[in-house]
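We emphasize that the prediction below concerns an isolated chain of 245 residues; any contacts that depend on oligomerization or on bound cofactors are therefore not represented. The input was used exactly as deposited, without trimming of termini.
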Amino acid sequence: MTVVLLALATFCSTLIGGLFALRFRDRLHYVLSFTAGVLLGVVAFDILPEIFALAQAHGADAAGAMVALVAGYLFFHGLEKFVLVHHTHEDDYAKHRHPAVGVYSALALAGHSFMDGVGIGLAFQAGPTVGVAVALAVIGHDFCDGMNTVSLMLLHRNPTPRALAMLALDALAPVLGAASTLLFSAPPGLLTLFLGFFAGFLLYIGTADILPEAHSQKRPAAVLVLMGLTCLGAAFIYVVVRVAG
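Result of the prediction step, given as a token string:
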């Protein structure tokens, strides 16, 4: 029951982050800059260390997870290009914007959030102290997950009701993920593959999708501010993970 209650806290954290992004949608470049740093931080300071820790704890080779990461990156790249080529006008293609791309990006984040919930549940299987630490880390960066989901939907010209629907899905995902672990114990090798694949998704969204758009400003002063926000987003996740760990 503690697992589900903490997962419900991630639900609230995600919703608040998404509503924050909606409130400041007129400053989307700044929100996106922070978002890109958050995604890079999640991959570098949260998911990858978790993969290596799982592999080391169970005497497994993390190479498979790294292959899955590359596969996830290339899969999302191919999916995005397919959507843009077949469903987007030429002027929109140049800007890499299409509502379907936003939906796919948000679904990838929801998948990551589901795995966050699974991570909380499996951490509690290892012990209550570990479970609470992981849950606090997830609650902290799920605020940013909500912000990321809404930012991506708005970036790709999705209407507000659709952005809110995807936000609700992303908020519900960790609850479902945590609840699912009450029914099974996932093999560590399979979990590392899932984590690697979603790390590839998030890495692509952060570096190839959000970051170029966020830093498209031409004024030098604006570029410095946006770069600073990206670094701040990554630093925020680093601190959250370190404090919770």
